[in-house]
Specification:
Largest sheet of chain B: 5 strands, mixed
Shape of chain B: rod-shaped
Radius of gyration of chain A: 14 Å
Structural class of chain A: alpha/beta
Structural class of chain B: alpha+beta
Strand order of the largest sheet of chain B: 2-4-5-7-6
Order of helices and strands of chain B: HHHHHHHEHHEEHEEHEE
Largest sheet of chain A: 5 strands, parallel
Helix content of chain B: over 70%
Distance between the termini of chain B: 51 Å
Largest interface: A-B, 23 and 25 residues
Distance between the termini of chain A: 23 Å
Number of helices of chain A: 6
Strand order of the largest sheet of chain A: 2-1-3-4-5
Number of strands of chain B: 7
Strand content of chain B: 5-15%
Oligomer: heterodimer
Chain lengths: 148, 541
């Protein structure tokens, strides 16, 4: 499988979910660089510190996977801040959550999320979602890489 | 006002009657004058006759003439009597009559003297006497006086006629003028009368408008006629309307009160509905979260088992053995761990849900609860954590409160537990429990308690979510299901109270609980479980 020069930044408070995402990304060959934070605050901190030193390459190599239901700063608020900040608004954000409430989905798309994936209880569905995520990442990343 | 034309009418009729009587007077006087003149003529003729009789006697000596003369003299005397009677009302004519009468008497005396002479001295002597013309002079005097009398009477007649004509003229003018004035006064009276009626009717008409506009009415119109009666009816109507309006306002206010209560009840229902929605959302979200793990790691286990099975069926070289060991020790152990954790978590979430659900249904046994021992018991039970956090707990004097002892202990246990759990590890913890006087909307003299900490605090934007189920701000600081404060609110509300929080992020939080002042204001009764109902007071109409 293709290995992409992509760093995946996962914000997820549930260890199990994080582990499942990580394993499946690994199995799909997408786990080039993987970083996990536990809530929105940690994610924003992480983005701002990384952004200072790797501004040039960060946008092109980073994808954020965001859970919604997190303590402190939740996923929706983190999404809003990422998209409102000129330094980070180009980073692709994938909402990954257990909620399939259409209002929540609409809200996330309004705020500028790139993909919204409902964490499926069905494991096959989850894998499928992760695979589609992998394809998406390939599509997203290639033209960017071509620019270098 | 109305009397004026009537008085005038009476005057007018009086004038007419006066004129009538004047006319008949005038006619009477005209006839009277004619009588006087006629009588004068007769007297004159008789005087001539007497003179002729004397002349006849003197010429012939025949005594016939003497007899005639005596008869004529007698008639003459009667004539004078009649004339005297006729002119009794007129002093100036009486004077003239007196002169005429004297002249006539003188003449008649002379005649009788001549007659005596004829009888005593013979005709010739008498003739000689007559030749002296004394008789003729006397006759002329008499004629002159008589003529004067007659002229005076005729003048009087013409004067009376002129005066009559003048007075008739004047009366005619008076009649015409009177008629004009009468019509004028009548018209004026009618006008004033109608104007007065119009102005009073205008007042009454205005009153109908005032009634329609709900304004106050002026005093009743003057008079005692139908207009007054009508105005009285309008005043009665206005009074009825006024009281009806008052009643209407009472109803209106009652209605508005009820509407406000309904709005409030509706708001409560809306809030409850939102809570339920939130609850469903949380359940779907939070229950699915462990399920994702259960399914995911179950599948992981399955995959690992398949791979392990394949490995075990092979020859198992070193690399494969290492992989098998890795699967069993790492992957499978990890999956099992997560499955167990997820199951535990699901179970605790379901327990929490059951607790919350029970908090809404459990039957309370309210009484006056002394809070002091309750709080001491709670603090004692948490002594270990409190000591570990190096926290200092201060308990003020607390008034007793009306409620279910177990439920109240649950409330304070949760609040104090939260305060302890979310202390800031960077500084020594300080927790205060006390009572405070606070205005609370919708409550009368509430009994308000507080639990204050100097812990992590809550940012403003999370304050509204604090009492919602499954909301956990500091997920990493303490374990829990995010049900505690939702439970507290539920229990407090069942006690007819309110709970709220004031907090500054990084400085600490103060949770307030307000209970009804006493049992009479509490929805909890000692007897049967309370039945939910919206109390809408019915106004006394």
């Amino acid at each position: 499988m293709t290995t992409l020069p992509v760093t995946i930044l996962l914000a997820e408070d549930d260890d199990g979910h994080a582990q499942l995402v990580q394993r499946n990304l690994e199995r799909a060959g997408l786990l080039n660089g993987f970083l996990r934070v536990r809530d929105g605050q940690e994610l924003l901190d992480c983005l701002s510190t990384r952004g200072d030193s790797h501004q040039q390459t960060l946008d092109d190599t980073l994808v954020v996977l965001l859970d919604i239901n997190m303590p402190r700063i939740d996923g929706v608020e983190a999404l809003r801040q990422i998209k409102a900040n000129p330094a980070t608004h180009r980073i692709p954000v994938i909402m990954l959550t257990t909620t399939d409430d259409p209002r929540e989905i609409d809200r996330c798309y309004e705020l500028g999320c790139n993909v919204y994936i409902t964490k499926p209880v069905e494991y096959d569905g989850f894998i499928d979602a992760i695979r589609r995520l992998g394809l998406f990442l390939q599509i997203v990343q290639r033209p960017r890489n071509g620019q270098h | 006002m109305l009397a004026l034309p009537l008085v005038y009418q009476a005057l007018f009729i009086g004038l007419l009657l006066k004129r009538q009587s004047d006319l008949s007077d005038a006619q009477h006087w005209a006839v009277h004058t004619k009588d006087v003149i006629e009588e004068t003529e007769r007297i004159f003729r008789l005087l001539i006759a007497v003179q002729s009789d004397l002349r006849g006697l003197l010429l012939t000596g025949n005594n016939h003439f003497g007899e005639d003369m005596a008869g004529d003299e007698k008639a003459l005397n009667q004539g004078f009597l009649a004339l005297k009677a006729l002119i009794q009302d007129n002093p100036s004519q009486q004077e003239r009559f007196q002169r005429v009468f004297q002249s006539a008497q003188a003449r008649l005396d002379y005649q009788s003297a001549v007659t005596d002479m004829i009888r005593d001295r013979g005709l010739e002597a008498a003739r000689e006497e007559v030749k002296t013309l004394k008789g003729r002079d006397l006759m002329e005097t008499l004629q002159r006086d008589l003529t004067e009398f007659r002229a005076a009477e005729e003048k009087l007649d013409s004067e009376r006629l002129a005066s009559l004509r003048q007075s008739a003229n004047l009366q005619n003018w008076l009649l015409v003028g009177g008629l004009v004035v009468n019509v004028g006064v009548g018209a004026l009276a009618a006008m004033m009368f109608s104007r007065e009626i119009i102005s009073r009717i205008a007042v009454v008409t205005g009153n109908t408008k005032r009634i329609a506009n709900g304004e106050a009415l002026p005093p009743l119109v003057s008079g005692s006629d139908e207009i007054r009666e009508l105005d009285e009816q309008f005043h009665i109507l206005a009074d009825h309307l006024k009281s009806a309006r008052l009643r209407e306002r009472v109803y209106q206010e009652a209605l508005e009160r009820r509407a406000a209560e309904l709005t409030r009840a509706n708001g409560d229902l809306g809030q409850k509905n939102q809570e339920i929605e939130m609850f469903v959302y949380s359940v779907s979200h939070d229950l699915r979260s462990p399920l994702v793990n259960l399914q995911g790691f179950g599948r992981e286990l399955g995959l690992a088992r398949k791979e392990l099975q394949a490995l075990l069926h092979g020859k198992l070289p070193t690399a494969d053995r290492d992989r098998a060991l890795q699967l069993a020790e790492r992957d499978m152990a990890e999956s099992i761990h997560f499955i167990q954790t997820a199951v535990t978590r699901l179970s605790s979430i379901i327990d929490a849900l059951l607790r919350l659900s029970r908090a809404g249904r459990v039957e309370y046994h309210p009484k006056m609860v002394d809070l002091q021992p309750v709080i001491r018991r709670i603090v004692e039970a948490m002594r270990g954590t409190i000591t570990a956090r190096k926290a200092d707990i201060a308990i003020e004097d607390l008034p007793p409160v009306w409620g279910d002892p177990t439920a109240i202990e649950q409330i304070f246990a949760n609040l104090i537990g939260n305060a302890v759990n979310y202390l800031d590890p960077q500084r020594p913890g300080k927790i205060e429990i006390g009572s405070v006087a606070r205005e609370v909307e919708g409550m009368e003299n509430p009994q308000t308690f507080f639990v204050r900490d100097n812990g992590l605090g809550i940012p403003d934007k999370y304050l509204p979510k604090v009492f919602a189920i499954f909301q956990r701000l500091h997920g990493d600081v303490a374990s829990g299901e995010g049900v505690g404060l939702a439970l507290v609110r539920r229990v407090v509300e069942r006690h007819g109270g309110q709970v709220w929080v004031e907090s500054t992020a990084g400085a600490g939080s103060t949770f307030f609980v307000a209970f009804p002042a006493d049992s009479t204001r509490s929805p909890l009764t000692v007897v049967a479980p309370r039945k939910e109902r919206i109390n809408v007071p019915v106004p006394i109409a």
